[in-house]
Amino acid sequence: MKRWGGAAVGYAGLTRPVELLDGMRVEDVFTSAERVRSSGRTLDHWAGRLAGKRAVLRLLGLPPTATHLGQVEILPLPTPACQADATCLDGHPPAVHLHADLARRTDPRGIRVSISHTGSHALAVALSSPHLPEDDRRGGVAGGVVLSSVRGSAERGGVVGALRLSPPAFWRGGAHG
């Protein structure tokens, strides 16, 4: 597994989630829980989830096929203060859950993802890190928990927990990595 993976998904000029998928079916790429959670949401939300999935697959060194994308689930992680379930709209950090073959091959507890948006792109970074004690206090989601959300625009560099992230060069218009 690599130490990080990043992805950007453009959504400018698009109107429906299926247009983000290059011919793949929404039902194959997004789990039923993701579809329920995203129903009625704006296209930037769908693009953000897709960017998160692609970033996780890049971290794992896997191609973004419909099968692999469908085995990566990005859902909000309720905080201990929140008594709501995954349908809560209060803005919780994203958590990664792996299913099927990916769940058997990889321990998702050390995968953290951050998602941000510009006016035309959703941006995500997936990081590999050790399991932290606070992960167990954040709801203990079976199959893997995780994550901190980016505070501030990814173009300016965001804050993840206590870490300051510099966006990859391709987000700033530099060389692709």
Structural class: alpha+beta
- Could you tell me the CATH topology label: Ribosomal Protein L22, Chain A
Q: Which of globular, elongated, flat, extended, rod-shaped describes the shape?
A: globular
Q: Identify the strand order in the major beta sheet.
A: 1-5-4
From the alpha-carbon coordinates, what is the Rg to the nearest angstrom?
15 Å
Would you report the number of β strands? Answer: 7
Question: What's the CATH superfamily, by name?
Answer: 4'-phosphopantetheinyl transferase domain
Into which percentage range does the β-strand content fall?
15-25%
Helix percentage range: 25-40%
The second-level CATH architecture is Alpha-Beta Complex
Keywords: Transferase
Organism: Nonomuraea harbinensis
Protein name: Phosphopantetheinyl transferase
GO molecular function: transferase activity
Folded structure, characterized:
- This protein has helices spanning 26-29, 32-38, 43-60, 66-71, 100-105, 133-136; strands at 4-10, 72-76, 94-98, 111-117, 121-128, 159-160, 163-164.
- With 177 residues, it is α+β, with helices and mostly antiparallel strands.
- It has a single domain, classed as Ribosomal Protein L22, Chain A (Alpha-Beta Complex).
- The strands form 3 sheets. A 3-stranded antiparallel β-sheet has the order 1-5-4, covered by helices on one side. A two-stranded antiparallel ribbon has the order 2-3. A two-stranded antiparallel ribbon has the order 6-7.
- The protein is globular, with a radius of gyration of 15 Å.
